[in-house]
Amino acid sequence: MKIYRFDTEHLATVYVAAIIESLMATKANPVLGLATGATTVNLYRQLVEFHQQGLSFSHVTTVNLDEYVGLPAGHPQSYHQFMHCHLFEHLDIPADQTFLLNGVTTDVAAECERYDRIISSYPIDLQILGIGRNGHIGFNEPDISLKTLTHVITLSPDTIAANARFFSEPKAVPTQAITMGIQSILQAKVIILMAFGRNKAHSVKRALSGEVSTRVPASFLQMHPNVTFVLDKEAAIELGTETFFQLSRS
Ligand code: GLP
């Protein structure tokens, strides 16, 4: 487990974008596991800048973590739309190399199985994660047990409240999502969890310094052999100084 603390979110995102570029340069057909949410916006902007400077993504495959149940791909707050607007429409990845969950499927079980087959067929080289204020990764919410593979989950009140900022009103936030399971996330060869801002500091602390617990799904990352937490100063504020490699002037 590596913990990198950067002075700013900008430096942190440039660092993660450079790791993605390096993977793309060394692997013929890299598979990226991608997340959504505010944490990833600047990372995707950086990747788009790389593309505008000549970096091709045509050999990349992407697999997204999750999607809201009930939002069609064209809904402004669907994760399909998020990925399209922030990344895919600006890059040269063929559409059939981008995999997302269908939030309006009429057969949820079949959709989960379809996704697990995709994850098996395209083993993820690098999984990008954010973290919820409650310690969730993907939409694996704190509970007495966690599901290993792709599944439907009822969102916690805290997650609904946190994500309400993207919707017209809290009542418009879907109450369920489909998400890759914990085991699927942990199967990625390399995992980078990004967290920025003071409101992530407590979940980062609990993920890193507590016991591995289903009450803090991100704590399961402690069991993975190649995880890096990429933080800004605020997100790292509750960590002891012994814990991290500091890419910082202070
Ligand atoms: C969302 C997503 C996660 C994301 C997390 C943090 O609900 N399901 O994949 O990492 O919560 O989101 P944000 O980056 O907007 O804080």
Condensed summary:
The chain has 250 residues and is α/β, with parallel strands linked by helices.
How many individual domains?
Answer: 1
Number of helices: 7
Mean pLDDT: 95
Question: At the first level of CATH, what is the class?
Answer: Alpha Beta
Structural classification:
alpha/beta
Give the proportion of residues in helices.
Answer: 25-40%
In terms of DSSP E residues, the strand content is 15-25%
Q: Main β-sheet, in a few words?
A: 8 strands, parallel
The best one-word shape is globular
Cα end-to-end separation:
23 Å
Give the total of beta strands.
Answer: 11
Which cofactor or ligand species appear?
Answer: 2-amino-2-deoxy-6-O-phosphono-alpha-D-glucopyranose
- Assign the CATH topology: Rossmann fold
CATH architecture: 3-Layer(aba) Sandwich
Oligomer: single chain
Order of secondary-structure elements: EHEHEEHEHEEHEHEHEE
How are the strands ordered across the major sheet? Answer: 5-3-2-6-9-10-1-11
Taking all Cα atoms into account, the compactness measure Rg is 17 Å
Q: Could you name the ranges where pLDDT drops below 50 across 5 or more consecutive residues?
A: none
